[in-house]
TrEMBL record:
<keyword id="KW-0862">Zinc</keyword>
<keyword id="KW-0482">Metalloprotease</keyword>
<dbReference type="InterPro" id="IPR023393">
    <property type="entry name" value="START-like_dom_sf"/>
</dbReference>
<feature type="transmembrane region" description="Helical">
    <location>
        <begin position="335"/>
        <end position="356"/>
    </location>
</feature>
<feature type="transmembrane region" description="Helical">
    <location>
        <begin position="371"/>
        <end position="391"/>
    </location>
</feature>
<keyword id="KW-0472">Membrane</keyword>
<feature type="transmembrane region" description="Helical">
    <location>
        <begin position="270"/>
        <end position="288"/>
    </location>
</feature>
<dbReference type="GO" id="GO:0006508">
    <property type="term" value="P:proteolysis"/>
</dbReference>
<dbReference type="GO" id="GO:0008233">
    <property type="term" value="F:peptidase activity"/>
</dbReference>
<feature type="transmembrane region" description="Helical">
    <location>
        <begin position="308"/>
        <end position="328"/>
    </location>
</feature>
<keyword id="KW-1133">Transmembrane helix</keyword>
<comment type="similarity">
    <text>Belongs to the peptidase M50B family.</text>
</comment>
<feature type="transmembrane region" description="Helical">
    <location>
        <begin position="238"/>
        <end position="258"/>
    </location>
</feature>
<feature type="transmembrane region" description="Helical">
    <location>
        <begin position="214"/>
        <end position="232"/>
    </location>
</feature>
<feature type="transmembrane region" description="Helical">
    <location>
        <begin position="184"/>
        <end position="202"/>
    </location>
</feature>
<keyword id="KW-0812">Transmembrane</keyword>
<keyword id="KW-0645">Protease</keyword>
């Protein structure tokens, strides 16, 4: 997912039953209908060479609209234009160094073929796929707007009903891996629930830190992802959101352990086993997310709270060692743990520095907040570590 792909061009095309001039007025930033999607709030020229300041409806880290400075060239009125982004108020200019997009409109009988092309340098296939589907969605929404005159926000993919359907689909996809029997189905459902609860913790943290439009996307088999409504504003916010994925489940694991013990004492053996399995899966999944790899939750927390590279390296080594020791204590084979440690170390080296750099440095984390997050990380680790050991003793 992080292999350098070099320069890649994504092209999406669709024939839309509308007049070319009307579509031009919608797609050209200075057109009369440029606000058709509520994305562009305003556009004003900065010079006579095609440089433009575009104000977008997307919310920046300060809560204000993101402003983007772009340059247009190869403009043919009513037919095509190309755009390069010089800088914006959200991301470092290096993010846009190789980016270029082109919009072309060609008449096809009573319709107009709209072709969108984006070229950029990609590190990993995930963002390339995201842009492809984002362009497809834009054309689909443009087609609806051309037919009805209204813009429909959102889409079927992130609709709550669709997300519930994806979660169910993921459970059924996992079912054969655990055995096509009631126990296998229960285990698949438990694992899917654990992923959903983890992402719900991230989403709750986004809400608590002022993100007004946080949402959760569930991807069958691959897991889920919580998305905030704006860029991060401070290092504390990054650490808090990252830790709350496992932190949310840390409140549930002791309750599940107590409920399992109560069910067992009352003679409800099946309920006790299911609750113990849920507690064990939640503990194992969440403590695995605390691995100090760059893109994992544990790595993100440590990068924000460690004051320098030496402290970060030491904390990462100690956390990884504690995770491997926990795995050994829980009964995992030593060979498996050595391989896992090597894989995590390589992943950390491969993904180091691969995050998107913001336009301005995040607000620093204060000493008290640093200590509070370090204590919370230790508490979350201890709770889930105990959950792993308790579940392995109960279920073995």
């Amino acid at each position: 997912m992080t292999v350098p792909l070099g320069l890649r061009t994504v092209t999406v095309s669709r024939a839309i039953e509308a007049d070319r001039k009307r579509l031009w007025q919608a797609l050209w930033p200075f057109g009369q209908d440029a606000a058709w999607s509520d994305e562009i709030l305003s556009a004003e020229p900065l010079d006579g060479e095609g440089t433009v300041l575009i104000k977008l409806s997307w919310e920046g880290r300060d809560g204000r609209p993101i402003e983007r400075k772009a340059r247009f060239d190869d403009v043919v009125e009513g037919s095509r234009f190309s755009m390069r982004v010089i800088e914006d108020t959200a991301l470092d200019p290096s993010f846009w160094a190789d980016y270029r997009e082109t919009t072309e409109l060609v008449c096809e009988g009573n319709a107009t073929r709209v072709t969108l092309t984006q070229t950029d340098r990609y590190r990993g296939v995930a963002f390339l796929i995201f842009r492809y589907f984002a362009m497809r969605r834009e054309l689909a929404k443009l087609q609806v707007w051309a037919r009805t005159g209204t813009y429909r926000k959102g889409g079927w993919f992130e609709h709550p009903v669709s997300q519930i359907g994806f979660a169910l689909l993921s459970a059924f996809i996992l079912w054969p891996f655990f055995g096509l029997n009631p126990g296998g189905l229960a285990l698949a459902a438990i694992l899917t629930s654990v992923v959903a609860l983890h992402e719900l913790g991230h989403m709750a943290a986004f809400r608590l830190t002022g993100h007004r439009r946080a949402r959760m996307i569930f991807i069958p088999l691959l897991g889920g992802i919580a998305i905030g409504g704006r860029p991060y504003d401070s290092r504390f916010e990054v650490a808090f959101v990252a830790l709350m994925g496992a932190g949310f489940s840390a409140f549930l694991v002791p309750l599940l352990i107590a409920a399992s013990g109560l069910a067992g004492s009352e003679g409800h053996r099946l309920a006790a086993v299911l609750l113990a399995t849920l507690a064990g899966c939640a503990s194992l999944f969440n403590i695995a997310n605390l691995v100090p790899v760059w893109k994992f939750d544990g790595g993100q927390v440590l990068r924000q709270i460690c004051p320098g590279p030496i402290a970060l390296a030491l904390a990462s080594f100690l956390l990884l060692s504690a995770l491997l020791a926990l795995g050994w204590r829980a009964g995992f084979p030593p060979g498996f743990l050595l391989v896992a440690g090597a894989v995590f170390s390589v992943l950390s080296l491969i993904t180091v520095g691969s995050g998107v750099k913001p336009r301005h440095e995040l607000k620093p984390i204060h000493a008290f907040d640093r200590l509070a997050m370090a204590g919370a990380l230790l508490a979350v680790f201890a709770i889930h570590g105990y959950g792993v050991l308790w579940a392995s003793a109960q279920l073995m």
